[in-house]
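Archive entry: two folds, one per protein. Generate the first.
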Amino acid sequence: MWYFAMALSGKLTRKLVENLGAGRHGDGGGLYLVVDPSGARRWIVRVVVKGQRNAKGAPLRTDFGLGGADIVTLNQARDRALEYRRMAKQGLNPRFNASREIPTFEEISRQVHIDRMPTWKNEKHGKQWINTLRDYAFPKIGRMPVDSIGQPEVLMCLSPIWTDKHETARRLAQRIKIVLDVAKSKGFRSGENPVTEIKEGQVLPKVKVRPKHHKAMAWQDVPAFYADLKTRDAMAAKALMFTCLTGSRTSEVLGMQWGEIDFDDRLWTCPADRMKGGVVHRVPLTDEMLAIIKPLVAMKSNYVFEGQKRHRPLSNMAMLMLLRRMQIEGVTVHGFAR
């Protein structure tokens, strides 16, 4: 009964676990909540293994990670700490005898994806991040406990695509490394990250990749293409005309809002979070550019180029459909879309 009571009581409370500042905070019985300066919270338990000595001959006192506080609750941490103390009292080293509940690689990956959603540049980037792991890592190591993944398991994911899909493999390696680093920070792993070991050991062959550039429309075809767009009333045609004149990416044009336009200074300022390079981009507006967008003010939309749904930007699909229609009609469009 004494052990049972110890597992359910202590100095900490759920509210304290959520709000305590950086440092090591004791719950009693060797259980501690460690709060890093970054705000990350994890559990550790300190035990003295009966009858065992360290290298200096002193009683063997060891700290063990029990997992992150965002995954392991206070009561679960107390239960696991009690299990470790019982083993230590019996002379058993918990490092070799504990039966911890270790999450799988896929479980940690999906949690990392959720936690980082606010940081994605856009929804598409977020989906690409998890889809790369879904397609190339989960089938091979997704169900494995995250603490059992080493170099051989990582190589199972990377080797088949290292040369044929090198850029994908490179991104996959980065994402596996992030997942394993997060798992370590939560107390589920220890030691060097196998992705780092593979890179530093040059285990995989060097691959020279030549950049593949999209074919551009021949400049001789641009005047006819633009003239054809001017005959069309579709919103996609106006957006394409504006894209031609500014030399911007279609994503930047489609997401353009009226707040980015300064009619007095004749300037379009595209914010950093919508630029591929992450740097603010300013585009002077010519008479032709203004002639395209000024009539659209009357629509009173949030976006300059509004789609079919009110206050929603024109979709990239609408532009592609227009290009396809023009192509069917015999207009040269090859190499335009980016």
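Generate the second and append.
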Amino acid sequence: MQLHYRELGQGERTLVILHGLFGTLDNWQTLARRWAEHYRVVLVDLRNHGRSPHAPEHTYELMSEDVRKLFAQLQLPADRTTLLGHSMGGKVTMRFALDHPSYLAQAIVVDIAPAFSDMRHQDDILAGLHAVDFTTCTSRQAADDALAQHISQPDVRQFLLKNLYRREDNSFAWRPNLAVLDAEMAQIGEEITNDTPFLKPTLFINGGRSNYITPEDKLHGIPALFPNSHIATIPNAGHWVHAEEPDQVFELVKAFVDQG
């Protein structure tokens, strides 16, 4: 598995960024350009997403190993590298930090906890994505209309439509491997566990209007695995913290990376 990635900027420190479910590296491009004024930034498409290869399995253990191979390929300096992940990418970040602590100086997890995540809220999104009939779909508007039958929020539809692309025969298709993601949804929600904690500095960024990190997670789940962690809550943000409050996320991440 050779993950697709994009590099921006340069500097002594490296920031590697992992997107969430149904996302791509493009979701973080605006913030990445700002961080690239200070660091080397590596944006990554996880397996079965974006321009990375499709595969029949989609587990955190495998995604952690995919990222490890990318770190080795890029020869990232362990003492100056930070891994940041949002949602599903945040769980990959936690799994990687626990599996390969020697590869990192620090970690950043955006609006997700190690606990089990109930993925039933993704049912409407999957239904919408499957509702787009690419034998008859000839425009982005037609795809949006099909999505709207299941997904009422325009911003969610616009996020999903970033996955739409034209194939060589000029027909449309989705970039994510929907068949595998659908089949592996329970795996995507699974709890992150480990016998030993990650002892290096870890920043959790929490959207104040999101319920992805609960009071129980803050009291017990996160400190048990990440005892050297700090949770920063952005009050007016939901789950898409980086899209809703980019300036605050920029400053939190920069301050954390700089002190590392």
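Annotation attached to the second fold: Residues 48 and 177 are 5 Å apart (CA to CA). The first helix runs from residue 29 to 35.
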